[in-house]
Structures are given as structure tokens and as C-alpha cells.
Amino acid sequence: MGESMGVLDSVKAKAIEAVVLKGTDMLIDDFDGNLPKVLDMVNKLSGMADSTTDHQRDLLNKFSHEYFMDPENNWRILIDKVRGLDRETVELFVKNFFVNSVVIGGNRQREVNAKEDCNCPWAILMDPTTACNLHCTGCWAANYEDKKHKSLTYDELDSVISQGKELGTYVYLFTGGEPMVRWADLYKLCKKHRDCIFSAFTNGTLVTDQVADQIAEVKNFIPAFSIEGFEEATDGRRGKGTFERVTAGMDRLKERNLPFGTSICYTRENFDSITSDEFIDFLVDKGVLFSWIFTYMPVGVGAPVELMATDEQRAGMYHVVRENWRQTKPIFFADFWNDGEYTGGCIAGARRYLHINAGGDVEPCAFIHYSDCNIREKSLLECYKSPLFKAYRAHQPFNKNMLRPCPLLDNPGALATVVTESGAHSTDYTRPEDVFELCRKTVPTAEKWAVTSQGLWDNSPKGKWVAELEAEGKDPIGWAD
Questions:
Q1: Torsion over CA of 389, 148, 207 and 364, rounded to 10 degrees?
Q2: Model-level pTM greater than 0.85?
Q3: CA torsion through residues 105, 107, 113, 115, sign
Q4: pLDDT tens digits, residue range 72-104?
């Protein structure tokens, strides 16, 4: 921890760690009997954790009393599933997430942000390689020729993580390409950086018994399996036999009592399949604990625009997540981009996360393939202070309607502005895409969503609150931070 501890001294951090780990053990052993005691510990602990707000404490207490004590509640069922996992894996996750990432990391990030006038991300997404064993429809990696694949070396990945920890980042996610092509190096990183949480967006086809055993060994790697729906939908985009292989990977982790989730991309074609109760119940039965929900983005020259979800489908996802799944299904759902009202808009550009591609280019987002800095030429902190990331910081949030958070999908002119202001270039090394051409692809959908989303935003609790601020003559921009 050392000097990187910043405003949170090591004695306080150790005290917080001891309380968190003790509370975790108590809840695993006897949830109902020990929950009141643990809540009392948390309320006392929050005074030590500078990053904890009264609102967060109130929310935890509300959840605990209204949801967690009811054995039939979906949130309580999810907790019981977590309690049944490998105990050491749960304990390490709690330590790395709540202590290292939220408390220690959060304080360090705010300290650096204030001193350096930049954003330090909560999570870093990296591409170990562009190589992939599949060629999925609509994926930019499918366009890369085998002989032209790029990769980050183990030392480069290790350096990013080491620099990131010094700046307060303890969460590292891998994508590609197929990140599990580089599992040997990811496995080494997990063993070296025991204080971090690692995950990967993976097609799941390479999660063999050996890999599952190694995940059980390191205990700080939690994969998210990409799945498009049932067999027809998944194989239709990812290739015949993929559904069977990805679900076999899930089964291997479930047999070892290990946590895993899913990454779901909904398109115009698979929306009905993905939003069915039958599909979500299937994921519950498989042992899925969390699900990241994305909408298809037409990134890359020649990417099929016709796969983009309609405004009605995006609104449908908004409703089904809030009014059904989060009320009835024991899975934690994160609905990008529809959760913009909870995150204060776009989280990219290092505001909460950023992306480093396999060529070392530091990009604002996994879907924004433009950059003006590279980890092979600059330190991580220097990249955070580059013109592109400064422009992102200056323009966020990109819209007062937080259901329109994205500078590409929802506000196409915003992306063109930050790219041209900063002088950033396309990072697609096979077919560079002009930013204005990219933005033109999303304009029709953005215009329709602007109308559809406004009614949702105006009637949402956060939208009403922002309206009240404006009525009082206050500027709501920046309220999320």
C-alpha cells in the first residue's frame, strides 16, 4: 500500500479490512443470525471509509431489512448462492473489491484526480490479443487477418496493472479478440497480483477442465461468458456448436463452486430471445450470478447497421430489467447504456473505465476506436492527461438526459467533437474508420431514441430530481460526481 495509500493511512485500511473480512465470515456462517451485527459493524466502519456516503449507508440498510431477510426474495436467493461458493474465493473477492477497490482505490483515485486534473478509472479493460478462435457476425475482431494479429506482451500487461494500482485501480477486465487465447499469461497475472479482481469477456469455448482448475486455484478471476440467447441465436452469430461449448464451460465452473457471469449483447434479431423469462431462468439454473447487458454497436468499416436495436427494443430492455428481472431473478444485472441514470451518464474516458487495445493504444471505451496516446510511449498517468481524455472529461456528461449517455450511440456529434478537438486517430489497423462516417451510422437510431427516452427520463426518479434542480435555477450537470 505504501505511499499510494494517499489520504487513507495503512492503519485505517487494516482496520477496515479486518472488519470487512470478519463480517463476511459471519454472514457465510449464519446470515440471518449475524446480519444485524454485521450491519452495526458496517455503520461504524463507514465512518472510517471516507468514500462512503450517508445515502449509500441508508441504501444498504434498506436492502438488508426489506430484501435480504426474506428467504423468498430474489436478492436473498442471490446472496445464498454466493454463500454456497468456494469460501476462499468469496473472501478474496470481498477483500479485493470492498477494501482494495472501493475504499483504498477510491480514495487514491480522488486524490490523483484533484492533484493532476484528470480522471483515474475504477476499472481498466485490456485486449491481450486480437486473435480469436471464432468469427462472430458484427465483431470487429472478426475482420482482423490471422497474419496481422497484435498482442500485448506479458510485461506490458503487468506494467499497466502495476501502474494502475499506484493510481488506485484494482479491477482489470480482459477482452479481445478472445482473451482466453492468452490464458497462460492471464493466469500468471492473477497469481502475481493477488490484491486485484480479474475478469474476461469470453466466448467460453476455451474454458477446459484444466483452465477451470486453475481458476479455482487463483480465486481472483471471474469470467463473463458471452451468450446471445439459446442455441439458435448464439450459434447463428458465433458459429455452430458454440452454445454447447459455452454452456459446458459454465458447467465446469459451477461444479467447482466458482463464480461467473454472462455478457449479453442484444441486437434487432435476438432481442425477443434474450428478453424471454425462459432464457433468464435458464441462466439462473446454470449458476450465473451477474449479467452485463450491451446493445450492439456498428463499430468498424462494414459493420452491419441493420443489427442495431430499435428504440422500441431498447425501451423494452429498460422496462424488463427494472420491472421484472431486478424484482424476480436472482442475478445482478447491469444494463449498459440504460443504467446511465445511476452512473451519471457515460463512464468511459477514464471517468470510471477505459480501454487499452492489443496495440497499446489507450482508448476511451471498448467501442470507441480512437486514441492519441499509447502505453508503449507514455505512462498510464500521462495517457489520462492526454488531449482526448481531457476532452472527454470536459464534455461529460454528454446529455442532461442520462438515458442518452453515449457520445456515439446517443449523441453522435459529441464523439466527432472530442475526436477532432483532440486530434485523435482511428486505431483500427486494418481498415481505419473516419469518425464522421462512424457517427453517420448511428444518427437515425439516435434521433428516434432521443424522443423515446425522454418520456422514460422525465418519469424516472433521477429525471424528476434533475428537473427540480433546474426549476430552482441550479445546473444539474456534474451532479453525479
A1: 10
A2: yes
A3: negative
A4: 999 999 999 999 999 999 999 999 999 999 989
